[in-house]
Amino acid sequence: MGRIALELLLRRIILAIPILICVSALIFILLRLVPADPVAMSLPPGSSQADYEAMKQALGLDRSIPEQYWIWISSLLRGDFGTSVFFRRPVIDLVATALPATVELVVFSLIVGTLLGIGGGMLMFAWRGTIGEQVLDLGTTAIMAVPEFLWAILLILFLGVAVPLLPFIGRLDPSVSLPPSVTGFLLLDSIMTGRPDVLGSALTHMVLPVIALSIGLAPLIMRVLRSSLIETIMEDYITQARLRGISERQIILHHALKNAALPTISLIGVQGGFMFGGTVLVEMIFAYPGLGNLMVDAVRNHDLPVVQVVGLVYCVLVLAINAIVDVIYLAANPKLRMA
User: Fold this and answer.
1) What are the residue boundaries of the ABC transmembrane type-1 domain, all occurrences included (predicted)?
2) Domain annotation covers residue 70
3) Cα–Cα–Cα angle for 55, 56, 59, nearest 5°?
4) Based on CB atoms within 10 Å of each CB, which residue in 15, 20, 138, 321 is the most buried?
C-alpha cells in the first residue's frame, strides 16, 4: 500500500508540472490584457515621465510578454517571488502570512461539512421512504440554493448583530496579542506556546466563517451518501450478509458504508478545491486576513506580482487536495490497489 501510494503521489507531481506551467502562463497573459496601468498606480502623485519610465523598466514591463513571462518563471525557480508593487514587501512574506489563515479555515470547514454531511446522509438513509427523509431532502435543497456569501451575511446579522453571540470581524480579539510564530499557523502556535487565550479567541472568530463555508458542502455529501447507500444495499453481497444472519446495523456500518463512501470521498476532494476559491468572498465579509483578502487587495490595486503568485498558490492547493484524495481513495478501494 505504501509503495503504491508513493507511486501515485509521484505520478500526480509529474502531471502537476505541465498544469502549473499552463495555469501560470494563462494568469500572466490575462493580467497583461487587463486595461490598467500598474506603473501609474504604484507611483506617488506628481511623478514625472522619467519616474514613470524608470519604474516601468524596473518592473520589466518595457519588454515583450514572452520575455516578461520567462523572467518571472526564472525568478520563481530561483526562489524569488518578486516584490509587491502596492505593499512594498516581498510577495513570499505576504503569502506566508495569509496562507495559514486560509488553510486553517478550509480544513475546519471541510471537517465540519464532512461530519454534518455523513451524519445527515446516514439519517436520510435510515429515514428513507418516510416524511423525515422528505423534510431533510427539502431542507438540503433550500440550503444549497443560498450561496456561501449570503450565508455569511445572514450569520452576521443573526448571530453577530441581532443576537451577539459570536465575533464576526478579524481573526482575534483586539485585546489579544499574537503568540510567537513557530509554524505560522495561529492555532498550532497558540497551543505550542501555551496561549489558551489566543486559541479560544481564534476558534470563536472561526465559527461563523466555518459555518458559512461548510453549510454548502454538507447537503451535497448528504445526498451523495444517501444515494450511494441505497444503491449499495441492493448488491448481492449485502443480500448474502443478511442470509448469514448479520444484523442490519453491522451490514450498514461494516459492509455497505465502505463502498458507499467512495463517491463521497471524490466529492469531498472536488468541493475542497472549490472551497479555497469560496473563501475569497467569505474572508472579505468577515474581514478575515487570509489569502482571499490578499488576492482582493492585490486585484484592486492591480498588484501583478501578488496576483500572479496567489493565483499559482490556489492552483497548487487544488492539486495537493486532489492528490491527497486520490491516496485516500486508493486506501479505501482494494480493487483500485489491485489494478
Assistant:
1) 99-325
2) no
3) 85
4) 321
Residues in the chain: 339
CB-based burial, 62-95: b 16+ in 10 Å, e otherwise: eeeeeebbeebeeebeeeebbbbbbbeeebeebb
Give the domain extent around 261: 97-305
Query: Within a domain: residue 162?
Result: yes
In a domain, 78, yes or no: no
83 near 91, Cβ under 8 Å?
yes
Instruction: Provide the number of structural domains found in the chain.
Output: 1
Reading the chain (339 residues) residue by residue, the pLDDT tens digits are: 567 667 777 888 888 888 888 988 888 888 877 776 666 666 667 677 777 777 777 767 777 788 888 888 888 888 888 888 778 888 899 999 999 999 999 999 999 999 999 999 888 888 888 898 889 889 888 888 888 888 999 999 998 888 888 898 888 888 888 888 888 888 888 898 888 988 999 999 999 999 999 998 899 999 988 888 888 888 777 788 787 878 778 878 777 787 778 888 888 888 888 888 778 889 999 999 989 889 888 888 888 888 889 989 988 888 888 888 777 777 766 665 555
Cell numbers found for residue 148: 456561501
